Amino acid sequence: MPVSILVLYDRKNSAIESLARAAASGVELSGADVTIKRTTEATTTDLLAADGLLLGSPNWSGITGSLKSWLDDQGDLWEDGSLAGKPAAAFTSGSGQHSGLEMTLLQMIHWMLACGMVVVGLPWGERMRVSGSYYGATAVGDMTTEDMAQARELGARLASVATKLTRT
C-alpha cells in the first residue's frame, strides 16, 4: 500500500499554489498517494491521517498569519506526539531573493521539529545555483522551470523517506 502525503499550503499568491502542485506531482511520480489542501480546507484529521507532510507558505516576513493560526489551532499535537516520526518538508515563494525565504522555511521547520517530525530538505544540486535552498523548495517572482523541478524533487524525496519510515 503506498504512503500518503498531505500537501498543505496557505494560498496568498499563485506562485505558492504552483509550487504545491509541482511538489504533489513529485509525490505522485514516486508512486505515493497525495492530497492537496489549502489551510482553509484542511483538518487535524487530514494531518494525522497522512504519512508525511509538505507544508507551504508564501513569504510575508515569515509565514502568513493565517498559516500560523492554522498550526496553532492544531492543539497540542506537539505535546501528545501524534506527529512524531512523520517526515515533513517545506516550500515557500516570495517577491525578492533576499526577502526572508529561508526564514519562512525555518519557521515551518521549527513547528515540525517541535512536533517531533523528521525534517526532509534538499541536498546540494546544481539547480541550487539559480533556485532553491537546502531547507526546502522556493520560488522568487515568476515561477521558473528550475523552481518547479525543485518542488517536484522535494515531493519525490519526501515520499521516498515516508516509504522508508513506514516500512521499518
From TrEMBL:
The Flavodoxin-like domain, residue ranges: 5-159
Pfam family, one: FMN_red
GO MF term list: FMN binding; NAD(P)H dehydrogenase (quinone) activity
GO cellular component: membrane
PANTHER family attached to this UniProt entry: FLAVODOXIN-RELATED PROTEIN WRBA-RELATED, FLAVOPROTEIN-LIKE PROTEIN YCP4-RELATED
This protein's name: Flavodoxin-like domain-containing protein
Species per Swiss-Prot/TrEMBL record: marine metagenome
